[in-house]
Specification:
Elements (H helix, E strand, L loop, with lengths): L1 E2 L4 H11 L4 E5 L5 H12 L7 E5 L2 H7 L3 E4 L6 H7 L4 E5 L3 H9 L4 E4 L17 H10 L4 E4 L5 H10 L3 E3 L7 H15 L1
Parallel strand pairs: 1-2, 2-3, 3-4, 4-5, 5-6, 6-7, 7-8
């Protein structure tokens, strides 16, 4: 997950480290709208980019960059608005309670992001860690794939998310370190067999 990127140059640097990932998500850029769209376009056209690119909270940026999905979050428009604005895109939601889950599913969300599973600096003071048991409950009862996020830093955590039923994991800090990210990607492949 790319977060806090200022411009195209930083996006290219981030992409070089994050190339082992199977999908990229772009959120909370540090620069202007123009810089954010340029950074997104750089990610979309990076030679070793994964096939799937999503944008957190901004369908207009996603469309400009040719992204595949929009992810709604705590501070963005509800899912129902995204589906109206861009019906052909993949729609996902970062959901934290039953009301958010129900609204996302009613609007046609095709996958959900659950977290934070573990403590993570970006959610301190906003959301307490949810834990593996909560992840497992979500994965077992929801009709769409669930991706785990939050504090995932090692292979043991990746395995635990897989065992809980997650369809994937999202990482922020680990995406900045190519060797660590490669290790996590390999751990997911081993877990998935």
């Amino acid at each position: 997950m790319a977060s806090g990127l200022l411009d195209r140059r930083q996006a290219l640097q981030w992409a070089a480290n994050a190339s082992p990932a199977q999908a990229w998500t772009f959120r909370r850029p540090a620069g202007s709208t123009r810089q954010a769209v340029a950074a997104l376009q750089a990610l979309r056209h990076f030679p070793k980019a994964p096939a799937f690119l999503s944008v957190h909270g901004r369908f207009d940026w996603a469309r400009c960059a040719g992204a595949d999905a929009v992810i709604t979050g705590m501070g963005s428009l509800p899912c129902r608005h995204w589906r109206t604005l861009w019906p052909e895109a993949w729609l996902a939601a970062s959901a934290h309670d039953q009301g958010e889950i129900d609204a996302a599913l009613a609007a046609g969300a095709q996958f959900l992001i659950f977290g934070p599973v573990w403590d993570t600096p970006s959610k301190r003071g906003l959301l307490a860690p949810r834990g593996l048991e909560s992840l497992k409950r979500w994965c077992c009862r929801l009709p769409v794939p669930v991706l785990a996020i939050g504090g995932i830093q090692n292979e043991t955590q990746v395995q635990a998310c897989y065992d809980a039923g997650a369809h994937g994991v999202l990482v922020l800090r680990a995406a900045e370190h190519k060797t660590q990210l490669e290790s996590l990607v390999q751990a997911w492949h081993r877990a998935a067999g």
